[in-house]
Amino acid sequence: MNLISDIIKKITDNEIWKSVFRHGYADTPRNRALQTISNVWLHIHPVKIPEHATKIRFTWCLGGITFFIFFFETVTGILLMFYYVPDVNRAYADMIDLMYAVPFGRFLRNSHRWAGHAMVITVCFHMLRVFLTGSYKAPRQFNWLLGVMLLVLTLLLSFTGYLLPWDQLGYWAITVGTNMGGATPFIGYQGPFAELLGVKINSDIRFALLGGTQIDAPALLRAYVWHCIAIPIIAGGLMILHFWRIRKDGGISGPL
Amino acid sequence: MSNHVEVNNKTKKVFTWPNLVAKEFLAAILVTIFLLLYSYYVDAPLRELANPGEPENPAKAPWYFLGLQEALVYFDPWFAGVVLPSIIIVGLMAIPYLDINPKGNGGYNFSDRKFAVTVFVFGFTFWFVLIIIGVYMRGPFWTFFWPWEKWSFDFPTPPPLVSFPNWLGVLALLIYFGGGLMLPIKRCRSFYEKLGLIRYNITMIMFLIMMGVIIKIVLRLMFNIRYVLQTPWFNI
Lengths: 256, 236
Known about the structure:
Chain A has helices spanning 2-12, 15-20, 29-37, 56-59, 62-81, 91-100, 105-132, 141-163, 168-181, 194-197, 205-210, 217-248, and one strand spanning 48-50. Chain A has 256 residues and is mainly α.
């Protein structure tokens, strides 16, 4: 034991270590507070929280799990971007490469795909939890609104990713989805009142989504850019607001 | 693990580290293990190369949109695919501003908010029921098959659909929405007075639209009704 504590002292009792880790690990209230406030990742939390908020059966960790899966998707998504090119002549071949040639490629793609589905489920159940605990009530109304936007963005993230493999499954799923866009009142070419604005198949909302009158190279590129860049940035921004508002609206909800 | 519990005036507070952080890390680890194990054993689907000339039959949207695709059976695309989801999103966003009942804030509580919880849980369940039907019970040409039935193209021709004559459709809609709005004012005055005119009307119209979707589904399945109302611009 002496040897170990000597080694630990050697490692930690020097300028380099102390320049990185500002405080020790002694079990004191001061240290516990510092653990939270001096850590950039943890200072999203208050130093102390109501005891009921640490009960798993209150939150079921669903919001945190959803955020964690978003992080998981970012990591696996970046790795997938190394191997995948959003070009109609290459995309499917890249998928085959991922499945059969890239080391751990199949595992990587599987985990990205399943985690995406899992995120849709956890965000839905997070909403259910927040509803059932009445946590959207004053003063947290606006944070619920942000949450609904994040739910929609989660669905859009998953939806835009669906086309990327450029296989029959994704192609026809996106066909079904975007054809509905063509039926939008006023701004879809098949929708009610389209003639009022003179909207045609090559000037309506569906055309703007697909970058063409049918799903082809521009649609694949748009899906890719929305999926990998635009929606994650928007969702990230809204998440910052969402988490910040939890603190600003009085912390996690609880019995009054 | 000692907890360093501090007794506040009202709520008991504990240190975030480690009481909450430990559970968060544990949740992250368990989710990671689950995702990795699942990904190791189950392959993500990948079908043949996309071919615009060869439609899938059935062509299904991603599962979370199959509730809307299922609604396409009963409504035209402008409603099922665009207006209905927009109403759902706006309706969800409006919830905190419509439900001004202060009770049940911060805890699971059914007895003080029966209407709110019942309606939300009902809608939430309904959404997933439609999804389950769409995922597991829709075969070629979106024909209904039980999960244990084999998909075939040899299904009976669906019966011809009929529509309400317009006078009946207008009347039905007027009675449904008019009556639906008036009845609670007459029979359940306190509900109306608590919400006030504007909140009451928005809440009830949202509620009546949700129930109306179900009524339209029943009308189609039991009486082969195609449209309740037909206009030169759109049909409902």
